[in-house]
Amino acid sequence: MDKKLDIPYHEYDDVLQLAEEDRELLHRAGEMVGKAYAPYSGFRVGAALRLEDGTIVTGSNQENAAYPSGLCAERVAVFAAAANYPDKAIESLAITADARQKVDHPVAPCGACRQAILEYEHKFKHPVRLILRGATGKIVILDSVRSLLPFQFTKDDMGLCPPRDMMDET
Ligand code: THU
Question: Where in the sequence numbering do the catalytic residues fall?
């Protein structure tokens, strides 16, 4: 049987069409672009997320001379939130970017970031809204990271693997 998945999303031409809270989050993500450390790629990304209690946590991409040691802006923000506010669900995450050539289209999180965001969406059983924009241009909003990660892998898929008790091994 052939099957097909649709990806629902909202698209806006202007930030003025967004709810004030989303506009603020995108603005905070934009401020973080200026704090990115991206001397190798020149691609500067800013992220800002809002927790369920209204707290905003931000991040920017952090590159490294040993290339794989760097981290995307989204994971910097998401891990900072998880580390500092481990009991608070993430409501929304805004992502924006700029580069030597103006980024004029929405920038979506990379695959590894989608998986990291999914982890917390799943943990809290609370969808993470994604607000995506380049330095200019249209804005895309997704109601959950799941739309960007069909056939996702979560801890539920590991149901048959009981956690190993390290003490049993001695
Ligand atoms: N990057 C992000 O921070 N987020 C994304 O969603 C895509 C890529 C960063 C990683 C690297 O520092 C630079 O952008 C170029 O890939």
Answer: 74
Residue 38 Cβ inside 6 Å of ligand 1? The answer reads yes
Domain borders along the chain are: 10-155
CATH architecture of 10-155: 3-Layer(aba) Sandwich (3.40)
72 touches ligand 1 (CB under 6 Å): yes
Q: Closest Cα to atom 9, ligand 1: which residue?
A: 72
Q: What is the pLDDT of residues 81-99, one digit of tens each?
A: 999 999 999 999 999 999 9
- pLDDT (0 to 100) of residue 170: 44
Angle 65-98-69 from CA coordinates, rounded to 5°: 20
pLDDT tens readout for residues 107-138: 999 999 999 999 999 999 999 999 999 999 99
